[in-house]
Write a sequence for this structure.
């Protein structure tokens, strides 16, 4: 279990009310349907009896299926992240609200977020629970503190073994408008950085590399058709480019798209809001090269359990030789056996290298009303490839933070409407219309989100979306 800390008033009431209500609604649906069909077939009749049981069975199947489908559609991504963390390792976590942390092993992280992320970041799933009755919680930062971890080499960690003086100087003093970092703290990468790295790696993964190679072969074959003779050459090239390449793309789907979406949905973003008496999942990405040397990084990716249960490595004969060599270096000249556990010095060192000593900390503030804080727009994405040269409807998504209850204004488009059912604090789904005259290529469309609270207006940063250039052209650098 993670060691948790909490501050301020906490609500100890049960959190299963929603699940109970859902069960009641299904039961009420069944009982209501049963009463209706019983009234419809009041006179006894064998044929009607069979119909009655058929209706009951259909209602039950429908209720169970609909409930499972709707629940899966709404929480499939969240459940996938939770399942991944449950297969990992618990970490110590603290913050001004309840925080639970679990390391997602690299093997699972590679499937969830891509190999580029799994091999360069430690993915930690955080469940942030705000039980405050009056205030929402704004997440400002997430970082790990490895000051108590022996392999960090900090005076705090070494003093636990009695090999360092505890009277070392702390961080330099800072003024009211300055802040300093600490040597033992590593901040989480914000989701935009991790997403950008995943996007860059996407075009060079094996699947996309293979698909581009097939496309290139088709283009080269088409351009070289004149060099071949025979009536079936053109047909063969046409079949390859028109049938084989698209079929290969369907057979081998691009899983990196879903991985990038998960980073956008769950990755840590500043000013993320946890509403009062609510909880949410956040995934933090910590750069491995910031606190692990190349050799330890390889061991961590392959066998993370060694860093959480180093004692187990003494009895595991299947451990990689590099891992056993690392453990042997840690305990020195002592023999790497179960008998060595009786040595207090060995146990002290093994406990010191355990990553259970690393704490995950969540920083933020409690605010009475998030609607009084300006929204922030990070990106805008339109669905498909809209034609801005003529009038027509377009749809898209505005991504950012604190977007809930905001009014979306788009300078350049008309009839702007927000789909509130499919919008969240981090994204706004919208529809709009291109004006009759269309939009000029390379012109800017400005997005703003405005909120009004108690007579006071707040406006987000203005986001400039550049209309794509015409085919074969490019927009001048601005």
């Amino acid at each position: 279990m993670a060691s948790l800390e909490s501050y301020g008033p906490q609500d100890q009431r049960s959190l299963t009310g929603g699940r109970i209500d859902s069960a009641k609604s299904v039961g009420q649906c069944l009982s209501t349907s049963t009463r209706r069909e019983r009234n419809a077939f009041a006179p006894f009749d064998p044929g009607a009896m069979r119909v009655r049981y058929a209706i009951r069975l259909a209602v039950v199947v429908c209720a169970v299926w609909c409930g499972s489908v709707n629940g899966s559609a709404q929480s499939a991504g969240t459940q996938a992240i939770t399942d991944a963390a449950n297969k990992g390792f618990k970490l110590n976590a603290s913050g001004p609200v309840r925080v639970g942390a679990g390391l997602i092993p690299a093997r699972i992280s590679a499937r969830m977020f891509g190999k580029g992320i799994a091999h360069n970041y430690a993915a930690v799933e955080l469940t942030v629970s705000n039980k405050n009755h009056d205030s929402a919680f704004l997440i400002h930062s997430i970082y790990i503190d490895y000051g108590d971890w022996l392999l960090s080499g900090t005076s705090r960690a070494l003093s636990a073994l009695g090999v360092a003086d505890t009277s070392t100087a702390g961080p330099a003093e800072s003024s009211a408008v300055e802040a300093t970092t600490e040597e033992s703290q590593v901040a989480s990468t914000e989701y935009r950085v991790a997403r950008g790295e995943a996007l860059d790696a996407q075009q060079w993964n094996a699947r996309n590399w293979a698909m581009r190679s097939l496309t290139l072969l088709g283009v080269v074959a088409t351009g070289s058709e004149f060099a071949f003779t025979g009536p079936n050459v053109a047909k063969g090239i046409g079949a390859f480019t028109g049938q084989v390449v698209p079929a290969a793309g369907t057979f081998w789907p691009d899983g990196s798209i879903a991985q990038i979406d998960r980073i956008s949905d769950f990755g840590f973003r500043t000013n993320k809001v946890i509403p009062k008496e609510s909880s949410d999942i956040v995934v933090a990405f910590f750069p491995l090269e910031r606190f692990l040397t190349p050799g330890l990084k390889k061991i961590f990716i392959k066998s993370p359990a060694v860093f959480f249960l180093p004692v187990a490595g003494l009895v595991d004969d299947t451990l990689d030789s590099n891992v056993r060599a690392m453990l042997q270096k840690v305990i020195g000249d002592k023999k790497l056996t179960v008998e060595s556990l009786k040595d207090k010095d060995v146990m002290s060192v093994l406990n010191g290298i355990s990553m259970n000593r690393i704490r995950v900390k969540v920083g933020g503030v409690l605010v009475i009303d998030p609607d009084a804080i300006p929204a922030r727009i990070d990106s805008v994405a339109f669905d498909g490839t809209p034609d801005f040269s003529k009038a027509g409807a377009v749809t898209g998504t505005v991504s950012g933070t604190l977007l809930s209850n905001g009014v979306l204004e788009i300078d350049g488009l008309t009839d702007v409407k927000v789909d509130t059912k499919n919008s969240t604090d981090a994204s706004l789904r919208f529809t709009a219309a291109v004006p009759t005259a269309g939009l000029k290529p390379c012109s800017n469309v400005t997005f703003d989100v405005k909120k009004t609270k108690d007579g006071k207006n707040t406006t987000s940063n203005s986001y400039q979306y550049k209309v794509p250039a015409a085919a074969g052209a490019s927009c001048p650098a601005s």
About this structure: The mean pLDDT is 79. The radius of gyration is 29 Å. The chain has 13 helices and 16 strands.
